[in-house]
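Weekly sync, protein design subgroup
Attendees: M.S., D.O., the rotation student, P.L. (late)

Item 1: inverse folding check
M.S. brought a backbone from last month's batch and wanted to see whether the design step gives back something sensible before we order anything. D.O. pointed out we never logged the input encoding, so this time it goes straight into the notes. Structure tokens as presented (151 positions):
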């Protein structure tokens, strides 16, 4: 959906609440006079589309609190992705450990005695790799620099 199409969507309470928060922050920072604040507030409350709500606050900066909330939300999403990845990798590691131990057990039964527990090597190395990945700092994605292809 394009931005122009989104502006034609009917405005809801969250849209109005965000605009009112933006108006109030601008008023308290001295960017708006009381009369202009009241006029814009009335426009926001009477607005029926998102475009009308955005028009009332288009020339005002986004309040610092909203920016901080958006950053906190992004950080929370990143943390959840990291934990999901760690759970997936740990589960794969545990499955591999069970698989290798099963092979070792079958060999030991076939031989008639407990042989050297060789799965310690692949499982240990794999476990160290999973642990190192979990403890390493998050990697930042680099934007690719390249020429745009002409159509």
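Designed sequence read out in the meeting:
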């Amino acid at each position: 959906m394009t931005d122009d199409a989104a502006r034609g969507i009917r405005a809801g309470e969250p849209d109005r609440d965000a605009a009112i928060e933006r108006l109030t922050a601008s008023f308290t920072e001295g960017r708006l006079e009381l009369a202009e604040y009241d006029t814009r507030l009335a426009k926001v409350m009477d607005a029926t589309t998102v475009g009308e709500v955005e028009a009332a606050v288009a020339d005002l900066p986004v309040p610092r609190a909203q920016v901080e909330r958006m950053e906190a939300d992004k950080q929370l999403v990143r943390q959840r992705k990291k934990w999901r990845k760690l759970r997936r990798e740990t589960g794969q590691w545990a499955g591999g450990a069970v698989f290798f131990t099963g092979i070792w057990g079958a060999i030991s039964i076939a031989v008639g005695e407990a042989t050297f527990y060789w799965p310690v090597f692949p499982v240990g190395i794999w476990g160290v790799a999973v642990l190192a990945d979990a403890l390493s700092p998050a990697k930042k994605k680099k934007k690719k620099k390249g020429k745009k292809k002409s159509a």
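Discussion: The chain has two domains: 3-57, 70-135. DSSP finds six helices and no strands in the chain.
Action: P.L. to compare against the previous round before Friday.
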